[in-house]
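> call design_seq(struct)
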């Protein structure tokens, strides 16, 4: 399962960087803790569907769009 979290984390990091957000600025934009955002991007946590939706919205995407990146 860890591989899934790492792949998702890489996708989220790539999209965040493409949007021009620092990790701290993105976490603030999404309303989450910066250290948690870092753990997500490193694939260290298995996020909930609710958090997936939060991150997708902060990136301007639907969950389905985020999952197909």
């Amino acid at each position: 399962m860890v591989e899934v979290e790492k792949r998702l984390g890489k996708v989220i990091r790539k999209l965040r960087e493409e949007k021009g957000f620092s990790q701290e600025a993105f976490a603030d934009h999404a309303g989450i803790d910066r250290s948690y955002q870092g753990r997500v991007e490193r694939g260290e946590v298995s996020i909930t569907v609710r958090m997936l939706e939060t991150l997708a919205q902060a990136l301007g995407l639907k969950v389905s769009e985020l999952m197909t990146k």
